[in-house]
Design brief:
The structure is a single chain. The protein is elongated. Strand 7 and strand 8 form a beta hairpin. The strands form two sheets. Strands 6, 7, 8, 9, 10, 11 and 12 form a seven-stranded mixed β-sheet that branches. Strands 2-1-5-4-3 form a five-stranded antiparallel β-sheet, with helices on both faces. It is of the alpha+beta class. Helix 1 runs parallel beside helix 4. The chain has three domains: about 15-150, Beta-Lactamase (2-Layer Sandwich), CATH 3.30.450; about 190-305, Alpha-Beta Plaits (2-Layer Sandwich); about 315-480, no CATH class. It has helices spanning about 10-30, 35-45, 70-90, 130-170, 175-185, 205-215, 260-265, 285-300, 320-335, 345-360, 365, 370-385, 395-405, 410-415, 425-430, 445-450, and strands at about 50-55, 60, 95-100, 105-110, 115-120, 190-200, 220-225, 230-235, 270-275, 280, 305, 455.
């Protein structure tokens, strides 16, 4: 009599150990950057085929990393796409399709929405089905995570571009349109603002923006600078709104915006912060210029922050004489008629000039044009104005002042008051009498402020002090000295 004892095949424990090793390898790959590509590459090597992710419509969504023969990759992608479309049509969760003249394709549906399939083309592993079933769970989680990260980046990018659009509208004076868009995006733009220009590492710009927004209690309008990749711009209410909480982390809870720049440099030591004076929302361009000047000081200040403490505003010169002088200087641009429809018109040329004076070669990013287009426009402006604006510092200074006076808020009233046929000179403009009744030196309303330091460095716990004695501007001798200092 013979007895037969049933025993497991000798290879089963080894198969189980190998499967556990595979699951462990997939778990390790899932922790890496670019986990989906890493896992697909590992699956292809492990199964002896080519692994890809395919959508239900036959579009290849992801493939393995590393170098592969392009011809082989195209054939495998085509076979996987056809098989995925067929499996999707059948509504099945997994199958082995193909064969015959083409390679077999092993497919399994991932637990994702929309439906995504893991396909391995031409595997030589007899246990490929088990391997795919184990890999599908981990791969589905990694794929959903990568898709969520892509969606988050798209949303962040869309919000950044929307905020950039609001900033562009403010910089060109379209305040009502900017307020409407900002009201939809939140927070609403305040009526009186301070501009913060924050210089920080480009790779950490979004992280720093989130920290600043959190510390500001949602009251700051933060925009990544569209021109300088290491700058963040923040419009902060000059006075805290009703019910706004104190800035977190500050001693005794000081309110915005006094402690925000101090908090920024404390939170992120790599940052440098320049702060403008408080201005009306319509004067955002002026606030930006002030903050940029303050940032130049902050780069070398031990506190890593500086504020613009002056009250300099050359638009007080935008009376009839100032408008006439600016119009004369810019007349070749204003009268220019483009020869072709695609050529820039007067407003585009003036916008290009203003952007170039502010940003130099980086104006191409500000204007969203190619750098060769910017260079061609600047050559054209040199020809129109009859001076080398792109090379002469004196011409640049005159063009900057002319643009400021021509686009000042009071320019329309000055145009109406200017006598027809009047001409004037820059010396006459600089000697413009102060507006309103009362005697006094000709340029007192704007000469007195510029003779004080236009910026102030901060020292924690100390009153603002100038770091250097004020310098008399080179043109101040053209007018009588102020009656009192």
């Amino acid at each position: 009599m013979c007895c037969f004892m049933h025993t497991s095949p000798p290879g089963v424990p080894a198969d189980r150990a190998g499967r556990a090793d595979d699951v462990l390898a997939l778990a390790r790959l899932a922790t890496r950057r670019g986990a989906v590509r890493e896992m697909l590459g590992w699956l292809g090597r492990r199964a002896g085929g080519r692994a890809v992710l395919v959508g239900g419509a036959g579009r290849v969504l992801a493939g393995p990393g590393g170098g592969h023969d392009p011809a082989v990759a195209r054939l495998a992608a085509g076979a996987a796409a056809d098989a995925a479309v067929e499996l999707h049509r059948r509504g099945a969760a997994s199958a082995v399709l193909g064969g015959g003249e083409g390679p077999p394709v092993h497919l399994i549906a991932l637990d994702t929405d929309p439906r995504t399939y893991l396909a391995v083309v031409g595997p030589d592993d007899p246990h490929c089905g088990t391997l795919l079933a184990d890999a599908a769970r981990t791969l589905a989680l990694c794929w959903r995570l990568e898709q969520s990260e892509r969606a988050r980046r798209r949303i962040e990018s869309a919000e950044e571009h929307s905020r950039e659009a609001v900033l562009h509208l403010l910089m060109v004076g379209s305040v009502p349109a900017a307020q409407r868009i900002a009201g939809a995006l939140r927070p609403a733009l305040p009526a009186v603002v301070q501009m913060y220009v924050i210089e920080c590492p480009h790779a950490r710009r979004r992280e720093i923006a989130r920290r600043i927004d959190r510390e500001a209690g949602g009251g700051a309008w933060i925009v990544p600078c569209p021109v300088r990749p290491n700058h963040l711009l923040a419009l902060v209410p000059a006075e805290p709104g009703p019910g706004r909480a104190p800035v977190s982390g500050a001693p005794h809870g000081p309110r915005l915006p006094d402690a925000l720049d101090l908090l920024i440099v404390r939170l992120v030591p790599e940052c440098r912060v320049g702060v403008s004076a408080a201005v009306a929302l319509r004067d955002t361009p002026t606030a930006y210029e002030q903050a940029i000047h303050a940032l130049a000081v902050a780069r070398n200040a031990p506190e890593r922050r500086a504020g613009f403490g002056g009250d300099v505003d050359v638009t007080v010169l935008a009376g009839p004489e100032g408008h006439v002088w600016a119009s004369e200087l810019l007349a070749p641009c204003l009268r220019y008629a483009p020869a072709r429809r695609a050529d820039p018109g007067p407003q585009e040329l003036l916008g290009t000039l203003g952007s170039w004076l502010s940003f130099g070669g980086a104006a191409s990013r500000h204007l969203k044009i190619h750098r060769n287009t910017l260079a061609a426009r600047m050559r054209h402006l040199d020809e129109l104005l009859g001076v080398e604006v792109s090379r002469s510092l004196a011409a640049q200074s005159a063009a900057w002042l002319a643009l400021r006076l021509y686009t000042a808020p009071q320019a329309a009233a000055a145009r109406a008051q200017a006598p027809p046929g009047q001409t004037t000179t820059l010396d006459a403009v600089l000697g413009t009498p102060p507006p309103g009744p009362g005697p006094g030196p000709s340029c007192a309303p704007w000469n007195r402020p510029v003779r004080r330091p236009a910026w102030r460095p901060y020292a924690p716990g100390c009153a603002p002090t100038p770091a250097s004695p004020p310098r008399r501007p080179p043109w101040a001798s053209r007018s009588p000295a102020p009656a009192s200092a």
